[in-house]
Write a structure and sequence with these properties.
This protein is of the alpha/beta class. The chain has helices at 2-6, 21-36, 55-68, 87-105, 117-129, 134-137, 165-174, 191-197, 199-204, 209-237, 249-254, 257-272, 280-291; strands spanning 14-16, 43-48, 73-77, 110-112, 143-145, 155-157, 238-241, 244-248, 299-301, 304-308, 320-325, 328-333, 336-341. The strands form 3 sheets. Strands 3-2-1-4-6-5 form a 6-stranded mixed sheet, sandwiched between helices. Strands 7-8-11-10-9 form a 5-stranded antiparallel sheet. It is elongated, with a radius of gyration of 23 Å.
Length: 343
């Protein structure tokens, strides 16, 4: 916690608890730390996602356990229809949305989550499989921006990233504490579950969670150095306006590819308001057009329209680009108006 606070982690904080071993251990550790440091205790947030039959009971157990340790706890319910596809991502976003709304309402600036060393390694492998670039493969930070738009004053804090799950389970066992396992954590439909099942084979090949997490940390140091260089490029090559960004295309094209790609991704994310960056393959394709002088007509990506500026707005010369939100058009079909993105 001393290291987390030194990195800007705010306190008082809320802790996300599912009832699993990792999050229950974090709840207890934060409670003991707060008591020893004479700080406000953490507030416990748990989400009833409604995706399994015992979801409500599991959330209620978290509330009961939190109160047993003298902590305030709140059960948040994901209401409405549930998706048939991409359930894992939808559930994750729903949890963060519900907890983010609660934190905003109660002026809590930090949501503490129980990501461990294994989570770090699993995230690396998932992103590697998706073809992510350096930012995706670099380690999760101890303190990072909230992963959904609209929560700029809120951050996520991960104080357990250097700890293995076995140590957390050992801590709970030493206190005779039980924990639950979400059935979704054993559902092979989810890629993260399939990776966990493959750990014995990966470890046999020398790809242990410890080594993969260490590789992610090496990439994180490279990412931090590139962040500085990217910031310098954005300052020199961009004019940020309320509803768009005017870009010096020539300067962007002349940058080293990694920095140019990072700068372009940040521009697109800022304009679209999307917390996630565009898929690397499509981003690379767009940047290649800019870099090789083949960018002739407007393109769309990540909810943005990227086009050449008219002469009146060409503040950086003939290769001035304008990045703005992608427009929509209304089509009349049998009397019903449909909104359709322009591609």
């Amino acid at each position: 916690m001393a290291r987390s606070l030194a990195l800007g982690a705010p306190w008082p904080g809320a802790v996300a608890v599912s009832g699993g071993g990792d999050s229950k251990a974090l709840m207890l550790l934060l409670a003991h730390w707060a008591r020893a440091a004479r700080r406000f205790p953490p507030v416990v947030l748990t989400v009833d996602h409604g995706l399994t039959q015992d979801a409500s009971r599991a959330a209620q157990t978290v509330v009961r356990d939190a109160k047993r340790f003298g902590l305030s706890a709140h059960k948040l319910i994901w209401k409405g229809a549930k998706p048939d596809a991409d359930i894992e991502a939808a559930a994750r976003d729903a949890r963060y949305r519900l907890m983010g709304d609660w934190c905003e309402t109660h002026r809590i600036k930090g949501l503490y989550v129980a990501h461990t060393m294994e989570d770090q390694a699993e995230t690396f492998l998932l992103r590697l499989a998706r073809g992510s670039g350096l930012d995706g493969l670099a380690a999760m930070r101890t303190r990072s921006p909230y992963p959904l738009p609209g929560f700029e004053r809120l951050c996520v804090v991960r104080p357990l990233l250097e700890l293995e799950r076995t140590r957390l389970r050992g801590y709970l066992e030493s206190r005779n504490e039980k924990w639950s396992e979400d059935p979704m954590n054993a559902d092979p439909r989810f890629a993260r579950v399939r990776i966990r099942e493959a750990w014995p084979l990966l470890t046999e090949l020398g790809l242990s969670a410890t080594r993969i997490a260490a590789a992610a940390q090496h990439l994180a140091r490279a990412r931090d150095a590139l962040d500085d260089a990217t910031g310098e490029l954005l300052e020199a090559a961009c004019r940020f306006e309320p509803d768009r960004v005017v870009v010096d295309g020539a300067r962007l094209a002349a940058a080293s590819p990694e920095i140019g790609l990072r700068a372009l991704a940040l521009i697109l994310s800022r304009v679209s308001g999307d917390a996630y960056r565009p898929r690397f393959e499509r981003l690379e394709r767009l940047y290649r057009l800019i870099r090789e002088g083949e960018f002739k007509s407007a393109r769309t990506l990540h909810g943005c329209r990227i086009g050449r500026a008219p002469k009146a707005a060409a503040v950086f010369g003939s290769f001035t680009l304008i990045v703005a939100r992608e427009p929509v058009r209304t089509l009349q079909r049998t009397g019903v108006a449909d909104r359709q993105q322009i591609s």
